[in-house]
């Protein structure tokens, strides 16, 4: 029997104006991939960043997430706090200001909106624009990850970001996203498509172990691959295991699952899309032969605020991982080198990279 292509509304993206088809024959082929079908990467990269949790407010309540705070305890960093973190980062040689959010705070977060109003902003994206300006002035390139975004929201901040991101996590409906305010795979697909329409180099990925099946993982990777084929804008895919924390006690995926999933990611995407494994969350040393070529952003200055119980490794540990693999380790910018061109850089980011100042020289040193 000839497999029928999945309908375009399988992932719910059609509700957001995005048509996406994943062919079930491709899914079957990807499900058959084994680690021995892919090759280890010839080199590893990482980025040096500061992690800036602009707000911990989030409209959703994913059951594995300790990042969000409920209304009444959510925080919003002040411009002074942002500047202080960025200055420390620049002094420590970082190049990336990683702005993290919960998803667009809803109307329950009245105190966050009061604070935004006091700062002269009517939305979190308007404030993000100011935050990106601060980062650029301090000598860091912004990479914002503000959850789902509409075209208007992303357009408001795209020109001040070297790259942006959101984790697709999974195309499946999983209980871990359940509850009264459940996030929607279709909307995340639409956000990734919007980045393509706006020529924003983009980072996305899948979260493994939140109740999805192997088939869901294959479909999620193929959905990302289809968007990349359309827009050519996916610079890297993160393959991230869910980890235990005070809200999630359902365990992490086993090593075999991580190995197969990483190999599937390497197979689903063209070679110029990096496959990243976060060394503070995943058993990276045991995944190196599955096609990983990037160790993500690590910070010599700030904590991983999304996974605060899992400390960033020191640079020495990354060097040990590369040494074990017998490959060179090099530092990269938050925008991958393939995207450092007129086609992808906004004038503001291009000017920051070309500037005859200390920050510009630091950026260009990583491109030589
Ligand atoms: S994972 Fe993201 S969307 Fe879900 S609750 Fe946490 S911050 Fe919000």
Quantity of strands, as a count: 9
Question: What is the ordering of alpha helices and beta strands?
Answer: HEHEHHEHEHEHEHEEHEHH
What is the helix content? 25-40%
Principal-axes geometry comes out as: globular
Percent strand: 5-15%
Note the main sheet.
Answer: 9 strands, parallel
Bound molecules: iron/sulfur cluster
Provide the low-confidence segments as ranges. none
Ends apart, CA distance between termini = 53 Å
Residue-averaged pLDDT: 93
Tally of separate helices: 11
Structure classification: alpha/beta
Structure report:
The N and C termini lie far apart (about 55 Å). The mean pLDDT is about 95. This protein has helices spanning about 25-30, 80-90, 110-120, 125-140, 150-155, 185-195, 215-230, 255-270, 315-325, 345-355, 360-365, and strands at about 45-55, 95-100, 140-145, 165, 200-210, 235-240, 275, 295-300, 330. Strands 1, 2, 3, 4, 5, 6, 7, 8 and 9 form a nine-stranded parallel β-sheet that branches. The chain is globular, with a radius of gyration of 19 Å. It has eleven helices and nine strands. With about 375 residues, it is an alpha/beta fold.
Short synopsis of the structure:
With 368 residues, the protein is an alpha/beta fold. The chain is built from eleven helices and nine strands.
Indicate the topology.
Layout: H1 24-31, E1 44-53, H2 79-91, E2 96-100, H3 110-118, H4 124-138, E3 141-145, H5 151-157, E4 163-165, H6 185-197, E5 202-208, H7 214-231, E6 234-241, H8 255-268, E7 274-276, E8 294-298, H9 315-325, E9 329-332, H10 347-354, H11 358-365
Parallel strand pairs: 1-2, 1-8, 1-9, 2-3, 3-4, 4-5, 5-6, 6-7
Helix pairs in contact: 1-7, 2-4, 4-5, 6-7, 7-8
This protein binds iron/sulfur cluster.
